[in-house]
Structures are given as structure tokens and as C-alpha cells.
Amino acid sequence: MSLDSLTSSIPDYAKDLRLNLGSVIGGSALSPQQLWGAVLATAIAARSPFVLRELAPEARANLSPEAYTAAKQVAATMTMSNVFHRTRHLLSDPEYGTLRAGLRMNVLGNPGVDRVDFELWSLAVSAVNGCGACLDSHEQALRRAGVDRETVQEAFRIASVVQAVAVTLDAEAVLAE
């Protein structure tokens, strides 16, 4: 299984997704590690077994073992953080924002990869999970690190395409039953 298999699985009515998947993966200005870490982390966050099965082997082939693990850690930690902070933001009582979170996130101290890569992947997962507070936090960290807006946008472009492919293919699987 591969990216080619995934791409060929996208139905004709969603051919724009096919083209976008090819361009975000094949034409990305990100480094291979930044690209494939974002792809893996967002494929996990998209919660599609089919998409994850197709993309994970290519991510493994393009990432060091440490980066592969770090991308999985981002998906796990950011999903927890996204739910927590999105909920805190959506509640009308601002006092929740003053309470201690009480969630362990030790990976933030030593992610095992370059901090910029970790922040890009965190931003991409936060885009999939729709957490505005986390998106702002990671975008600001990236901008403080000197990352330009085009690079930041590339991370959430990847997230948007991987999520759309996952939704489309999962829907097709159900509709085919």
C-alpha cells in the first residue's frame, strides 16, 4: 500500500482532493521530516484507519525512528490538549481559564526532534481538531522562531487535505456497504 494506492482510491467527484494530495506531498517546500511528520500526525488525528494504513509506511520510510515516534507523540498529546483547550475556550465561564490544567505533557520538554518541526506538527494536528487556542499558541511559537507565514500555512494545508481525504474515503466505504 502507498500514496499511489491512496490517491487512486479517491473518487472522481473528489478529483480536486487527488490533485491537492499530490501537490501538498509532492510539491511541498517543507523539509522531508517536516512534511512526513505533518502527514503522519494529521493522518492519525484524522482517525481514518484506511488513510493511516496507506500513509504510515511512507512516513516511516521518510522519517528517522525518532521523528516517526515524535509525530505519533504529537498526535496523541495534541489531541488531548486540543479537546481540553477548545472546551475551556467554548465554555462561557472564563474562570476555567484560571484553573490549573493538571495534564501531563512531558513530551513538550523534550520532543526528540527540532522544536520547529514539533510546533509545525502540533499546529497541523490542532487544525484537524479545530482548537483555536492551540492554533494561536503554536503559530505564535513558530513565528517567534522565525518561521514565515508560508511555512506555517503549508502545515495546515497538509492537515486540510489529509482530513478531507480521510472524510471522503471513510464516507465512500460506508456508502458502498
TrEMBL record:
Designated name of the protein: Alkyl hydroperoxide reductase AhpD
GO MF annotation: an example: disulfide oxidoreductase activity
Organism: Streptomyces spongiae
Gene (UniProt): ahpD
Quaternary structure (record): Homotrimer.
Domain of life: Bacteria
Active-site residues, Swiss-Prot/TrEMBL: 131 (proton donor), 134 (cysteine sulfenic acid (-soh) intermediate)
Ligase recorded as keyword: no
Family: Belongs to the AhpD family.
